[in-house]
Amino acid sequence: MQLSIIVTNYKTPELLKLCLESIKKTVINIDYKVFVMDAAGDEDTEFAAKENFKDFNYVPFEKNVGFRALVNEGLALVKGKYILILNSDIILTEDIIGKMIKYFESDSSIGLLAPQLLNLDGTIQESCFRFFGPMTVLARRSFFGKTAFGEKILDRFLMKDFDHQKTREVDWVMASAIMVKESAVEKVGLMDKRFFMYFEDVDWCRRFWQNGLKVVYFPEVKLFHYHLRVSKKHGGILDLFTNKYIWIHISSAIKYYWKYALRNLKFKVQMSNQFQNPND
């Protein structure tokens, strides 16, 4: 099997149907299997998936297990050399697979490839980023992002200093639509189980880089992404009191910073001990 496709879904049956229809129409001339990972799915969604897409594998979960768990459970099922991971709000409009595999094969050090994501009006969506700094979350979630210094932090984070029509290596990409090699996943491991939702893609990309595998933004392939940002409804401080997803986002951010801050601290202690004068 050359290609496996994992589609993650949570209570978006209409978008899921559009996504699966687009896969069926555009993925051609390749042997592939689709695994629909459906969190807290209802009978209507299950019936629609099984009835309209009988060749696809439907895997339901009784509750919302989170994006990371859906991906990891999917990765445990797939057998393809290449694995395309899609959210159910992604729409394919052309045969993208051949282009992506060809680019993978041009450089064996590429571990993860991300297409350009477009809003429904055709504008480019922010989907590739630099790694978070200590002030990035604050700038994104508060009035601080409106200050001159906060805007500078956000511009750097959002990579506004480069042409998004050009292919390039990036720190991390939004995992709404990514392709990975099975061999790369075997080397890097699954998504970190400490993340229920949010930051699992940041962490995963970081671990790809740590294992010598490139993360590449590839705008030669374009997909449409509905992208409902459930962690940002009203914007600003009001979300702290009205939106549970912002607290999930903040919790994941804390876990991420703690994971890598602690690792860096241990590294600094080891280096300090290594170069310490034994006569001191």
UniProtKB/TrEMBL annotation:
Residues 4-108 form the Glycosyltransferase 2-like domain. Pfam families: Glycos_transf_2 (PF00535). InterPro entries: Glyco_trans_2-like, Nucleotide-diphossugar_trans. Gene3D superfamilies: Spore Coat Polysaccharide Biosynthesis Protein SpsA, Chain A (3.90.550.10). SUPFAM superfamilies: Nucleotide-diphospho-sugar transferases. This is Glycosyltransferase 2-like domain-containing protein. It comes from Candidatus Portnoybacteria bacterium RBG_13_41_18.
